[in-house]
Batch of 4 targets.
Target 1
Amino acid sequence: MRLFLDTTILLDYLLDARGAFHEPAVKLMTAIAAGDYEGGFATSQATDLYNSLNKACNDGVARSVLQKLFAFCDLYATSPDACVSALQSSMRDYEDAVQMETARENGCDYIVTRSAKDYAASPIPFIDAAGFLALAMPK
């Protein structure tokens, strides 16, 4: 199963200060790192992640953390067609529409996000980390 990881999920994983959202994100990313699922995100998200990590820590830590993340997550290129198609999307937020189109072009089965309302018009199913874990790994 191929998952597109929204920035919210990646930051929940990377920053322990994200409260109750941190643990499900860690479990999800651990499963991805173990090869249970494929997980990735758009290359454009890398700079957003760097900026957030650099503010929370520093440049060296941000670079080191991203290097480790890149070792087990796929980086999906956003094509010009995705950018154009996103303009025609019924999704209200253009950035989210571009992410959705990138996920579609890369054959993702789910978009994992905490921003469900932002993806309400997505043709790709969306779910949060805890919901995905409950769906994929029932106890």
Note: The two ends are 19 Å apart (CA to CA).
Target 2
Amino acid sequence: MTAQPSRTLPSSRNAGWVLVAAAAVAIAALFGPQIITIAGKGRLHGPDLALFAAQPMVLQLHILAALGTVALGGLIFSMRKGRTFHRTAGWIWVVLMATTAVSSLFIVGLNGDSWSVIHLLSGWVLIVLPIGVWAARKHRVDVHRKTMTGNFVGGSLVAGAFTFLPGRLMWRLVFG
């Protein structure tokens, strides 16, 4: 039995982007004034590669894998589903997402030398990611779509957006 490409309506394909926009609005509403005040003091520039190189290897791996999940995930969202590219890129995305989640377990510092609340998201990703893969293998398109969209939006985009808050490393890499 061969897998049939999903025949989702354009509106359902855009549902993930609606969630991203809603998250951006929520972040802007919660942190907008503080970000604007601090952003006025920063300047946009190319990434500070010296600062990136000075970070521990696990943090470098985490950042590169996370950037890969955002870039490849956006590409996967924009392409037709169920084709060879979707399956191949999907496997690469799963490896990048698992790498991001596992590497985050070795990154501490926000909460002293112990895990913080964000590590719960890493644990959740490591539980839900195999469910999404299993659903794809079993042709459970609805479950696959929900789990992978949730991982991409929550685990990559929303969590990634919080790393760009003023004072955090990603802020300093790009704006500092």
Note: The helical segments are 10-13, 15-39, 49-53, 57-78, 84-104, 118-137, 141-162, 169-174.
Target 3
Amino acid sequence: MSDGLPTKTLVTRLLILVVLMFAFGFALVPIYDVMCKAFGINGKTAGQYSGAQQQVDDSRRVKVQFMATNSAGMVWEFRPVAADLVVNPGAVNEMTFIAQNPTDQPMTAQAIPSISPSEAAAYFHKTACFCFNQQVLQPGERVEMKVRFIVDRELPKDVYHLTLGYTLFDITARHPPVAAN
């Protein structure tokens, strides 16, 4: 190479670029968490709850709204059976979501939850959830998927409304399902 960088220098720079891009991919999750916390958006749920049953606060009511969306390219029907529930903090509650695979191929999906307002996410405890596992549906199959949850009694008193949202992702390419015989 007469005009430009020598081949060894070019290869070294390209390898450094590849390593930096790989490292950036790992840094996206912590960056996302920091941005969500800074802007108060898309709070993650507190995760699976294994704590003891709480005493129910009958004097307080909280509206929990449910949302279901599909990521780009996901073709399943996906929805809650009701738009919302009014719950008492400390009580065990349940909501059913419907999923149907309208294609002629088996598919694998993963639901990712989020809670808003984000500061309330620490007070939302799932005791059972379809989001803990990947969902495999055969062609035309329809399933009812449950989420069981408790809104913690320690939820700040100024929070009267929560939104639990799920985004459904097609992960068939990474986790191919086995077709039913």
Note: The CA atoms of residues 40 and 52 lie 29 Å apart.
Target 4
Amino acid sequence: LRYVRFQDSSGKDLAIYVSVRAVRATKQKGAWSEFLGGSTYVRIERIVSVGAHLELYSEFWLREEDFAGLGGLPHHSMQKGMRALLDKHLSLPTLRVDQWIRFVPMPGAPARALGLEAGQPAFLMELCGFTLRDRPLSYQCLYSGPFAERFVVVR
């Protein structure tokens, strides 16, 4: 994943493995709809395993029309970087990503997926991806419980 890296205590990057849990279309509103615009969205839920050290829960949001342009890719193809898929299949490169990090009470879905208790303090990283002509393209949330590994801030 391009914007998420962790290192061990010696400064070596830890391997990242991604598994897709679900892909769902929705009309539900939230921070993603405010950012992306439009009326229907696709949420791609994934688990990001960082070496054998920790797991993150990922929600990656796209407008439904952008996702439809991918032509029904199999789930295993979404285990790589979603931004690379959008560039390759739709010619929509991610040219800029705004990132925010904060701590929030762990929501239910991420807590269940990570085997943690809902409501406990959670790391949240929000990523807003922009493409050509500064058009909003993707919205992503990454959740995690506490971790000791070094998180590398990538710009």
Note: The chain has a mean pLDDT of 88.
